[in-house]
Specification:
With about 350 residues, the chain is of the alpha/beta class. Helices cover about 40% and strands about 15% of the residues. InterPro entries: Glyco_trans_8, GNT1/Glycosyltrans_8, Nucleotide-diphossugar_trans.
Length: about 350
C-alpha cells in the first residue's frame, strides 16, 4: 500500500467520522405559537449565518399554525410536535409576575430527542452572533451563570445529552418538588443542583448567553466585551419583535434599557427582513400576521397604521413606553385634546 493510498483512506475515515458527529449533534429550540416562531426563524438563520456544522431542531406545540410550520420546515432539519407541559405552580409564577412561564416546562421534551448523542438548547429569543460549535465539546449540564444570581445558571442556553431516563427523572422531580421560580430555570437548577460548585468546566463563559437587558452593575462590561459576545439572549418581556419598527427608515425604536445593544437589535431585524419577512402571510396568528403587512420604504398604509397601533399597545402592556417620542406627555396631551374636541357636546359642565 502506497503512502498516498493510505492518506486517502485516512481522509475518507476522517470525513466519515465528521459526518457521523454532524448527525449525532443538534441545536434545539422550542416555540409555542406563531409570534415566538418569529424568534425561532431568526435564530435558525443566525446559526446558518454563523456557519454551524450541525443540525437544527425545533420543538413545536399545537399552538403553532400549519402555515408557520411550513416556514419552520424550510430552515430546520427536524420539526417535532410536543404537548404543553404546565408547571401548574401559580404561586411561584405570581412572584415573578410571569404566569406564562408555566408552559416553559415544555422545554423538558428536548431530553426525548434520543436520536442525537448531544444537543445544545437555545431559547427562541436568542441570537447567535458567532460560530459556537465548540459548545458540543462540553458535557451535560453546561450553562452560563444567570446575571441576577450567578450561582444559578440561565436555562436559555445549555448543553445536554438526550435521555429518556433523564426526561422521566426530571418530570418526576418536577411533580415532587416543583420549581422555586415556577419555570424551567428554577426546576433545572434544582435538579442539576451541583452545577455551582462541582465542575467549573460546566460553567460556560458569559459570552455564550449575554442578557440583552443590561443593568447599571454590568453595563460597562457589556460595552467593553461587546465584540466578544457569541450569543445574545433577549430574556425578559421585551423581545425584538415587540419593539416598534419604522418601515420607512428601516429602524426599530429601541427602548432606553436596550440602547447599548441597539446595533445588535438592528441586526436581528436585518436578518428578519433578509430571510423571514417575505415568507410570512396574513393568515398567521399573532404578530406574525401583522408583520407580514409591513412594506419597507413605502408610504404608510392602513395595515401599517394598524400594525403600529398593535405594537404600541404591546409595548405599553410590557411597560415599555416611548417617553421621548410618540408616548411623550405633549403627544399624549394633544391626543386627549383632539379626542375631547371631537366628541359632541352633551351639556356636561355647562350652566
Amino acid at each position: 500500500m502506497t503512502p498516498t493510498t493510505w492518506l486517502d483512506i485516512q481522509t475518507i475515515l476522517t470525513l466519515m467520522l465528521l459526518a457521523q458527529i454532524h448527525e449525532n449533534y443538534a441545536w434545539v429550540t422550542l416555540t409555542t405559537n406563531d409570534t415566538y416562531s418569529l424568534g425561532a426563524l431568526v435564530l435558525a438563520h443566525s446559526l446558518k449565518r454563523a456557519s454551524t456544522a450541525y443540525q437544527l431542531v425545533v420543538l413545536v406545540t399545537p399552538g403553532v399554525s400549519e402555515c408557520m410550520r411550513h416556514r419552520l420546515k424550510e430552515v430546520y432539519d427536524i420539526i417535532q410536535e410536543v404537548n404543553v407541559m404546565n408547571s401548574q405552580d401559580a404561586a411561584n409564577l405570581a412572584l415573578l409576575a410571569r404566569p406564562e412561564l408555566g408552559v416553559t416546562f415544555t422545554k423538558l421534551h428536548c431530553w426525548r430527542l434520543v436520536q442525537f448523542e448531544k444537543c445544545v438548547f437555545l431559547d427562541s429569543d436568542a441570537l447567535v452572533l458567532k460560530n459556537c460549535d465548540e459548545l458540543f465539546e462540553r458535557e451535560e449540564l453546561s450553562a452560563a451563570p444567570d446575571v441576577s444570581w450567578p450561582d444559578c445558571f440561565n436555562s436559555g442556553v445549555f448543553v445536554y445529552r438526550p435521555s429518556l431516563e433523564t426526561f422521566d427523572k426530571l418530570t418526576k422531580f418536577a411533580v415532587e418538588y416543583g420549581s422555586f421560580d415556577g419555570g424551567d430555570q428554577g426546576l433545572l437548577n434544582q435538579y442539576f443542583a451541583d452545577w455551582a460548585y462541582v465542575d467549573i468546566h460546566k460553567h460556560l463563559p458569559f459570552v455564550y448567553n449575554v442578557t440583552a437587558y443590561a443593568s447599571y452593575c454590568y453595563l460597562p462590561a457589556f460595552k467593553h466585551f461587546k465584540d466578544k459576545i457569541k450569543i445574545l439572549h433577549f430574556a425578559g418581556k421585551m423581545k425584538p419583535w415587540l419593539m416598534h419598527y419604522n418601515a420607512q427608515n428601516k429602524t426599530p425604536s429601541v427602548p432606553s434599557q436596550y440602547t447599548h445593544a441597539a446595533d445588535l437589535i438592528q441586526l436581528w431585524w436585518n436578518i428578519f427582513f433578509d430571510n423571514v419577512h417575505q415568507r410570512l402571510n396574513r393568515s398567521m396568528a399573532g404578530l406574525a400576521g401583522a408583520l407580514s403587512q409591513l412594506r419597507l420604504g413605502e408610504q404608510r398604509t392602513d395595515e401599517q397604521e394598524a400594525y403600529d397601533l398593535l405594537m404600541r399597545r404591546q409595548a405599553w402592556e410590557a411597560g415599555q413606553m416611548d417617553y421621548t417620542g410618540l408616548d411623550s406627555f405633549d403627544n399624549i396631551w394633544k391626543k386627549i385634546q383632539e379626542t375631547l374636541q371631537s366628541k359632541p357636546e352633551d351639556g356636561i359642565g355647562t350652566s
